[in-house]
């Protein structure tokens, strides 16, 4: 049997493509529109097709991986995702490109839902915490770096080069995965396909809200801030990509620092999560009030850093904490549930953010000018800023509500644990 670290390396390699696809594809939309047409709905499905397919299929693959084995579903997912990448690269029109992104999303759901249970089976104790810390870091880094890396690929090889790079990485991951043993074969039933019983555990539900808040308060901003910087400050793609690194670097650093702090102190995961919610709310408000045509771009760096911290702080332990609250034999289905919430919320709220933004801008600026401004074209900075305020404020309010819900559920979980300890002591 190969060493666990080899499997971890393969998982991280395949996993890295998924967040890149989620947050980085929007950068390619202007080039795609130029080559394949700019009809709004098909163009938006280049982004949403992947996300929606991912969200819908993740719960299905979670249960299937319990039946056929985690490594097998992981391999199958890589093949399907790579096939979607090839279709995307060769797409002669927007409909075929949309189909390619949907297929890539279906395969990526299998990759992700297989990955977390494999880690749970391969590692124990401190090694498991470290593996999930790396897993979370790669996921967060891929999301945070998506716009910048996609921008570089776009500059070098055009929009097709973005999907070609994804496919190459998946092929390399498949070469590694093909040599790995079967892990996690178990029994399941069709009824369990939609088994959300894990959500009855307050701890699991509380931790499930954390990636949802990250999707609402970070991924939405990450996806559309490049457009905002172009529309409001007329920044070039290169400058925008460099500026977006201020959101990426905290995501890379935070999980590693949190892991060390939690090892050496009594700071709990709940405290870290509460701090992350605070960073998301304060950072979002900072972007809301500081990203304006009459203010320098540099003043917006501080809130962007806070957004990165808000997303990065809990990355290394959220999945591990959630899966620890359910029986080990249900790890696959539980992973499917938490990833359904994670990716589903990204798909829903990225689309909601875009819809609010476009509605406000086109209402203030009807016609072609409004549509171009909503896509990030410079020329009407105050119109775009008005849409940004409406969309961002909506996301901030939702994050605040999720934070309150997290605190309430965490307290309920703590009370439940205390009650169980008292019963065990009495016996």
Describe the structure.
- This protein has a single domain, classed as Up-down Bundle (Growth Hormone, Chain: A).
- The protein has 14 helices and no strands.
- Helix 8 crosses helix 10.
- The radius of gyration is 21 Å and the shape is globular.
- The termini are far apart.
- About 2% of the residues have low confidence.
Task: Indicate the topology.
Elements: H1 4-24, H2 29-36, H3 40-68, H4 70-90, H5 94-122, H6 125-177, H7 202-233, H8 237-264, H9 269-290, H10 301-312, H11 318-323, H12 331-364, H13 368-374, H14 381-426
Low-confidence stretches: 187-194
CATH superfamily caption: MFS general substrate transporter like domains
Gyration radius from CA atoms, angstroms: 21 Å
Alpha plus pi helix count: 14
Structural class: mainly alpha
> Number of folding domains?
1
N-C termini distance: 43 Å
Order of helices and strands: HHHHHHHHHHHHHH
Reported for the largest beta sheet, the result is: none
Helical residue percent? over 70%
Q: At the first level of CATH, what is the class?
A: Mainly Alpha
Shape: globular
Compute the average pLDDT.
83
Might you state the CATH topology name?
Answer: Growth Hormone, Chain: A
The CATH architecture: Up-down Bundle
Number of strands: 0
């Amino acid at each position: 049997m190969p060493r666990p670290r080899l499997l971890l390396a393969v998982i991280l390699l395949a996993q890295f493509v998924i967040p890149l696809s989620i947050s980085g594809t929007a950068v390619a939309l202007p080039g795609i529109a130029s080559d394949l047409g700019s009809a709004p709905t098909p163009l938006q499905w280049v982004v949403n097709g992947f996300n929606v397919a991912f969200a819908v299929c993740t719960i299905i693959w979670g249960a299937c991986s319990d039946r056929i084995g985690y490594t097998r579903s992981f391999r199958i997912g890589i093949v399907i995702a790579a096939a979607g990448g090839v279709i995307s690269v060769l797409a002669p029109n927007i409909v075929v490109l949309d189909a390619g992104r949907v297929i890539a999303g279906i395969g990526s759901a299998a990759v992700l839902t297989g990955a977390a249970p494999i880690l749970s089976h391969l590692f124990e104790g401190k090694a498991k915490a470290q593996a999930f810390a790396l897993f979370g870091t790669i996921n967060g880094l891929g999301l945070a770096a998506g716009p910048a890396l996609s921008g570089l690929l776009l500059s070098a090889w055009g929009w097709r080069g973005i999907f070609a790079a994804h496919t190459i990485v998946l092929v390399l991951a498949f070469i590694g995965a093909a040599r790995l043993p079967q892990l996690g074969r178990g029994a399941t039933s069709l009824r369990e396909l939609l088994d959300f019983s894990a959500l009855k555990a307050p701890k699991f539900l509380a931790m499930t809200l954390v990636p949802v808040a990250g999707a609402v308060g970070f991924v939405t901003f990450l996806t559309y801030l490049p457009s905002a910087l172009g529309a409001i400050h007329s920044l070039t793609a290169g400058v925008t990509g460099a500026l977006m690194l201020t959101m990426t670097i905290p995501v890379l650093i935070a999980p590693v620092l949190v892991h060390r702090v939690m090892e050496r102190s009594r700071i709990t995961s709940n405290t870290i999560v509460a701090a992350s919610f605070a960073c998301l709310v304060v950072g979002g408000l900072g972007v809301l009030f500081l990203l304006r045509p009459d203010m320098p771009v540099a003043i917006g760096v501080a809130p962007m850093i806070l957004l990165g911290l808000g997303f990065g702080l809990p990355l290394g332990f959220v999945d591990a904490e959630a899966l620890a609250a359910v029986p080990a034999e249900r790890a696959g289905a539980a992973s499917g549930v938490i990833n359904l919430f994670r990716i589903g919320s990204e798909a829903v709220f990225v689309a909601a953010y875009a819809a609010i933004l476009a509605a406000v801008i086109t209402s203030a600026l009807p016609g072609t000018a409004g549509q171009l401004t909503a896509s990030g074209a410079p020329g009407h900075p105050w119109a775009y800023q008005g849409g940004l305020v409406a969309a961002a404020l909506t996301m901030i309010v939702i994050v605040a509500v999720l934070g309150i819900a997290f605190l309430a559920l965490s307290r309920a979980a703590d009370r439940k644990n205390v009650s169980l300890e008292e019963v065990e002591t009495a016996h």
